[in-house]
Design goal:
The complex is a heterodimer of chains A (about 425) and B (about 300).
Chain A: H1 7-51, E1 56-65, H2 68-73, H3 76-87, H4 94-101, H5 108-118, E2 126-132, H6 135-141, H7 158-170, E3 173-177, H8 179-183, H9 196-227, H10 232-244, H11 249-263, H12 271-296, H13 299-307, H14 312-341, H15 344-348, H16 369-377, H17 382-413
Antiparallel strand pairs in A: 1-2, 1-3
Helix pairs in contact in A: 1-17, 3-5, 9-12, 9-14, 9-16, 11-12, 12-14, 13-14, 14-17, 16-17
Chain B: H1 4-49, H2 52-57, E1 61-62, E2 77-78, H3 81-112, H4 115-130, H5 133-154, H6 164-189, H7 192-200, H8 205-234, H9 237-242, H10 260-268, H11 277-310
Antiparallel strand pairs in B: 1-2
The chains are: A mainly alpha (about 425), B mainly alpha (about 300).
Chain lengths: ~425, ~300
C-alpha cells in the first residue's frame, strides 16, 4: 500500500530533489556573474592585445646629409631618398629604387625639417638620425604581416624583406617608443597618425562642458533642494530632469545641430559647440548628484545657522554648500567622464572631420578622442586597427583615472552625521 | 541702528541670487523645449514633402535617390518600417542576452552573495556601464563580428559581417549592469518579513526567491527592463560601427539590418544641403526616437515609483 509512507518520509523523498534545485539556482547566479565578467575580460584583453603594439614604432637609422639645394627646395623627402640609396648602392633599377624609398614613411622628411628648424646650422652637415619607417615595415616587424605567406598575398615583397633583414643585421632598424602617437595629429598614413589633436579637442570640449554644466547644475540643485516651493512647477522640473537623463545622446546632437549650428550659426566642428551639447547632456547627472549631496547635509546645520540669524541664502552659501561640495564634485567628475566617452552627439555637429592640425582654440575645427577612435576603426589599413585599439587604451586610462579620483574624493570626504 | 541700510542691500542681493538660481533651473526645461521644438519644426518640414503615412507605414527606405533633385525618380522612398524592424531586432537580441544574465547576477548578489563578494563584484559589473559605447562598437565590429562570421562558416551558416547578432550581442553586454543594478535595488526593497514568512513554511531559499521575492519585485524589474529597452533603442555608436547601412526587412539575426540611429548618423554626417528631404528625414527619425524612449522612460519611472511606494 502506498500510504505506508509517513508524512515525514514523503517530505524526505522530495528533499534531495529540492536541494538539487536549490544548488542549480545558485549556480545560475554564479554563472551569470561569471559570464558578465568574462565578457569584460575578453573585451579588455582583445583590445589590449591589439593595441599594445602601437606604443612602439619601427624606426630606421639613416646617415643623412642636409643638402643645401634640397633644403632650399623644401624637398626633405629627397634627402631621405638619397641616404637610403647610399645605404643600398647595389639597388639600381628604377622600380627597385622606388620600392626602397617606400620602406620609409612619407613623413620621415618632416623629422628632418623639424631638426633643421631647431638648428639651422645643420646645413651641409651629415648626421645619423632615427627616422620613421612605413606602416608596412612596421606591421612586418610586429608580426602582423606573415613572412611565410606567398609574396602575392602580403604587402611586403621578398626584395623588401631582404633589405629589411640587412638593416636589422646592421642594427639600423629597431622598434622604438612611439612618441609621435602622443604628439601628432591625425594623418592618412597610419605611422604618422597621433591622438594629440583629438586629445586637445576633447580637452577644449570638456572645459566648455564643465564651465557650463557645473555652475548650472549646482545652482539648479540648490534651487530645487533648498528654495523651491513644493508645487506643480517644481514637479515639472523634476520629472523633466529625470527624463532628460534618459534621452538618447544622439537626440542632444540633433538639438545642437538644429539650434546651435543652424539657428545661432555657431561654427561647425568646433569644440565650443561640442562642449555646449555635452553640457546639456551631463546636466541631469550633475543635478541629480548635487541634490543627493545637498540632501545628505543634515537639517541641524541649517537650523543652527538660522538660529544664529543667518538668512536662507547665507545658510546655504556659507554652511550647506561647502559641506555638500565634495559630493557635488564627485558627481561632476563622473559626469565629465561620461562626456569624455561620448561620441554620438559630436558626430551630429560635425566633429568627425579629418583634421590634421592640432586645435588651438575653442572655435578651431577639432575631433574628440572617442570620435577619433570611430574614424580610425573605419580605416582599412591594418596599422590603423592597432592605433584604434591603442587610442581606446588611452581613453580608458583617462576614464579610470577620473573615476578613481571620484572614488578617492568620496572616501576622503565621506562623513557620517 | 546700523542694521537698516545694510539689510536692504542684503535683501536686494539675495533676491538677485535667488533669481539666478531660478533662472538656472529653467535651463533643463529649456533643453527639453529646445529638443521638442527643433525636432518638431524640422519634422513638419519633412512631412510637408513626404506624407506621414508613407513614412510610418512604408516598407522601403532608400533616401539616397533623393540627393539629385533634378533626376527622374528623385523622390526617394522614406518608408521607416525596415528601420523600426531593424532597431527592434537588435534591441530584442540585446535584451534576450542581458535579461537572464543581469537578473540572475542581481538575484545572486542580493540574496546569496557574502557582503565582501558583493563589494567586489558590483563595482566590476559597473565598469561595463562606464566603458564608452565607441569601445563596444570597436569590439563588435572588429572582434565579435569576425568571430561570428568564422564560426558560422565552420558550421555552414552564412553570417553577414555586419550581422544584427554581433551588434545585439555586444549591446546586450552593455546593458547587463543597467538591468542588474536596477533589479538589485528592487529585490533589496522587498521586505525581509516576506522572506521570513516563506522560510517559516519550510521553503528553500531558491523557492522563496522564485515564488515570493520575484513576484513581489516583478513590477520593479519590469520597469528596469523598460529602461534597458529604451537604452538599447537609443544606442548609437555600437550599431553605427557594427550594424549595416542598407535597409533590410528581415527577422534573421545573421543578416545585416540597419537602425533608426544608424540612419540619423549617415543622413547627417558630411556636408549636406539643409533643406533636402534627406537631411530632414533624420529629424523625423529623431522625433520618433525621442518619443519612443520618452514613453518607455515615463512608464518605467512610474512603475518603479509605484513599486517603491508599495513597500515603504
Amino acid at each position: 500500500m502506498s500510504d505506508t509512507l509517513t508524512h515525514s518520509e514523503r517530505i524526505e523523498a522530495g528533499l534531495t530533489k529540492r536541494y538539487r534545485a536549490e544548488k542549480r539556482f545558485r549556480l545560475y547566479g554564479i554563472a551569470a556573474i561569471a559570464v558578465a565578467m568574462a565578457f569584460l575580460v575578453i573585451m579588455l584583453a582583445a583590445i589590449g592585445i591589439r593595441g599594445i603594439g602601437a606604443f612602439q614604432q619601427t624606426e630606421v637609422a639613416l646617415t643623412v646629409v642636409f643638402d643645401e639645394t634640397h633644403i632650399k627646395d623644401n624637398n626633405w623627402q629627397a634627402i631621405v631618398k638619397e641616404s637610403m640609396r647610399k645605404k643600398f648602392p647595389e639597388v639600381t633599377s628604377r622600380s627597385d629604387k622606388r620600392l626602397l624609398t617606400q620602406l620609409m614613411s612619407s613623413g620621415a622628411g618632416f623629422n628632418l625639417q623639424n631638426m633643421y628648424r631647431a638648428d639651422p646650422s645643420l646645413v651641409g652637415e651629415t648626421r645619423t638620425v632615427w627616422l620613421t619607417a612605413s606602416d608596412d615595415v612596421d606591421m612586418l616587424m610586429k608580426g602582423a604581416i606573415d613572412r611565410a605567406s606567398p609574396q602575392s598575398e602580403r604587402r611586403v615583397s621578398d626584395k623588401e624583406i631582404v633589405w629589411i633583414d640587412s638593416l636589422i643585421a646592421d642594427g639600423a632598424l629597431e622598434l622604438k617608443f612611439n612618441t609621435h602617437f602622443f604628439t601628432g595629429g591625425d594623418s592618412r598614413e597610419p605611422e604618422l597618425a597621433g591622438i594629440f589633436g583629438a586629445f586637445m579637442g576633447s580637452i577644449f570640449s570638456l572645459a566648455v562642458c564643465f564651465l557650463l554644466s557645473f555652475p548650472l547644475g549646482v545652482m539648479t540643485a540648490i534651487y530645487l533642494e533648498e528654495f523651491a516651493p513644493k508645487n506643480r512647477w517644481t514637479d515639472v522640473i523634476e520629472v523633466n530632469i529625470n527624463n532628460l537623463a534618459a534621452v538618447p545622446s544622439i537626440v542632444f546632437g540633433l538639438l545642437g545641430l538644429a539650434v546651435f549650428l543652424n539657428f545661432f550659426m555657431l561654427p561647425r566642428s568646433a569644440p565650443l559647440v561640442g562642449g555646449m551639447v555635452l553640457a546639456l547632456m551631463t546636466l541631469p547627472t550633475i543635478i541629480i548628484a548635487s541634490r543627493a549631496a545637498l540632501r545628505a547635509v543634515p537639517p541641524s546645520i541649517r537650523e543652527a545657522a538660522w538660529g544664529m540669524g543667518a538668512s536662507s541664502v547665507q545658510t546655504v552659501l556659507h554652511h550647506v554648500l561647502p559641506l555638500a561640495m565634495p559630493g557635488m564634485l564627485t558627481g561632476t567628475i563622473i559626469g565629465m567622464a561620461q562626456a569624455l566617452g561620448e561620441s554620438a552627439p559630436l558626430l551630429m555637429i560635425g566633429m568627425v572631420a579629418f583634421i590634421v592640425d592640432i586645435p588651438g582654440s575653442f572655435t578651431d575645427p577639432a575631433t574628440a578622442l572617442p570620435v577619433q577612435i570611430f574614424l580610425w576603426a573605419d580605416s582599412p589599413e591594418r596599422a590603423f586597427t592597432e592605433r584604434t585599439a591603442a587610442a581606446i587604451i588611452v581613453l580608458l586610462v583617462f576614464l579610470v583615472t577620473m573615476n578613481l579620483i571620484a572614488v578617492v574624493l568620496r572616501k576622503k570626504f565621506e562623513r557620517r552625521w | 541702528m546700523y542694521v537698516t541700510p545694510a539689510r536692504r542691500a542684503q535683501k536686494a542681493v539675495e533676491a538677485v541670487i535667488k533669481g539666478i538660481l531660478i533662472a538656472s533651473s529653467t535651463v533643463a526645461i529649456l533643453t527639453t523645449v529646445g529638443i521638442v521644438a527643433s525636432l518638431l519644426f524640422e519634422s513638419l518640414r519633412f512631412f510637408g514633402e513626404v506624407p506621414l503615412t508613407d513614412f510610418l507605414f512604408g516598407l522601403e527606405w532608400s533616401p539616397q535617390t533623393a540627393m539629385r533633385a533634378d533626376q527622374v525618380g528623385s523622390s526617394g522612398s522614406f518608408g521607416a518600417i525596415p528601420l523600426f524592424a531593424g532597431t527592434l531586432l537588435i534591441s530584442a537580441i540585446a535584451l534576450i542576452i542581458a535579461t537572464p544574465i543581469g537578473l540572475f547576477a542581481a538575484i545572486y548578489l542580493a540574496e546569496y552573495a557574502h557582503v565582501s563578494v558583493r563589494n567586489w563584484v558590483k563595482p566590476i559589473l559597473e565598469i561595463l556601464a562606464g566603458i564608452p559605447t565607441v569601445v563596444y562598437g570597436f569590439f563588435a565590429a572588429l572582434v565579435v563580428a569576425p568571430w561570428l562570421r568564422g564560426g558560422g562558416e565552420s558550421i555552414g551558416l552564412d553570417v553577414s559581417s555586419e550581422s544584427a547578432l554581433a551588434a545585439g550581442l555586444v549591446m546586450g553586454v552593455m546593458i547587463i549592469p543597467l538591468i542588474s543594478s536596477l533589479s538589485d535595488d528592487v529585490i533589496n526593497a522587498v521586505p525581509q518579513t516576506m522572506r521570513d514568512g516563506s522560510f517559516g513554511l519550510g521553503a528553500t531559499k531558491s523557492e522563496t526567491i522564485r515564488n515570493v521575492v520575484l513576484p513581489a519585485a516583478l513590477p520593479g524589474i519590469m520597469g528596469g527592463l523598460l529602461l534597458a529597452a529604451s537604452r538599447a533603442i537609443g544606442e548609437t555608436m555600437i550599431v553605427v560601427m557594427a550594424a549595416g547601412l542598407a535597409s533590410n526587412l528581415t527577422a534573421n539575426p545573421l543578416q545585416a539590418v540597419t537602425t533608426v540611429t544608424v540612419q540619423i548618423v549617415t543622413l547627417l554626417t558630411g556636408d549636406q544641403e539643409f533643406d533636402s528631404a534627406k537631411t530632414l528625414a533624420a529629424f523625423a527619425l529623431g522625433l520618433m526616437l525621442f518619443f519612443t524612449t520618452l514613453v518607455l522612460n515615463v512608464v518605467a519611472l512610474h512603475i518603479v515609483k509605484k513599486y517603491r511606494e508599495q513597500y515603504e
